[in-house]
Amino acid sequence: GLDPNFLRHSQFKRPRTRITDDQLKILRAYFDINNSPSEEQIQEMAEKSGLSQKVIKHWFRNTLFKERQRNKDSPYNFSNPPITVLEDIRIDPQPSSLEHYKSDASFSKRSSRTRFTDYQLRVLQDFFDTNAYPKDDEIEQLSTVLNLPTRVIVVWFQNARQKARKSYENQTEAKDNEKRELTNERYIRTSNMQYQCKKCNVV
DNA sequence: GACCCATTATTA
DNA sequence: TAATAATGGGTC
User: Fold this and answer.
1) pLDDT tens-digit series, residues A94-118
2) Rounded to an integer, what distance in angstroms lies between the CA atom of residue A134 and that of residue A192?
3) Cβ neighbours, 10 Å, residue A78
4) Which of A102, A130, A156, A165 has its CA 20 to 30 A from that of A141?
5) Distance (Å, rounded) from C-alpha A161 to C-alpha A68?
6) Can you give the distance from the CA of residue A44 to the C1' of nucleotide B2 in angstroms?
7) Which residue has the higher pLDDT, A96 or A133?
8) Nearest to A149 by CA among A72, A64, A68, A67
9) Which nucleotide is nearest to A111 (CA to C1')?
10) Å between A19 CA and B8 C1'?
11) Which helix (H) or strand (E) holds A190?
C-alpha cells in the first residue's frame, strides 16, 4: 500500500508565494467591487500587482469562500449590527484616500482565539481518537452538541491531524530505521486509510 | 471544494 | 514563552 504521506512529501512543490500588503491592497480593492472578476480585470490586477493570474484566481476563490463561511458561521460574523450601536462610533478625522481598500474596519484583524472548555476538548479528542476525519453530518452533530461553529470544529480537526502527524513523524525519526510496523499511532493509520478510501471513493 | 501544512499570532 | 487557534497559499 502506498503511504499518502510519502506521496505528499515526495512531491515537488512550488515555494509559497507571499502576497505583500500592497498586492493585497490591489486585490482587495477589486474584490470589494466585484467578487468574481472578469478575465480583463484579472489581467489588470496581474499587471498592477505582478502576481500571476493563477494566484489571483486562487485568491479570489478562497477569499470568496471564506467570506461566505464567515457569514454563515457566527464567530467571525461581525456583520450582525450590534444592538448597542452607540458605543463604537467614531468619526475619522480625515479619511485618507489610500484607505479605501479596507472595506470594513471590523474585518481587518484576525479574529480572537476561541478558548475551548475542558469538556469540549475531551469530546473532540475522544472523537478524534476513533476518527480523525469526521464527515459533514458528524461535524454538524459536534457543532450542536458542543455549541461551537462548524468552522471551528473543522479547523480543530485540521490542527489535530497536523499535530498528530508531527508527533508521528518525530516518533518515526526516533525509532530510526524500524519504520514499518508502528502500532503506536492508531490515529494516523486510521486517518490515512480513511483518507485513501475517500480518495478512491470507496466510502 | 476538501484537505495539507508552514506560518502567524493570541492567550495562559 | 509554549501551546495551539486561525490564516493563507498550495495540491489534487
Assistant:
1) 333 333 333 344 445 677 899 999 9
2) 13
3) 14
4) A165
5) 25
6) 30
7) A133
8) A72
9) C6
10) 14
11) helix A186-200
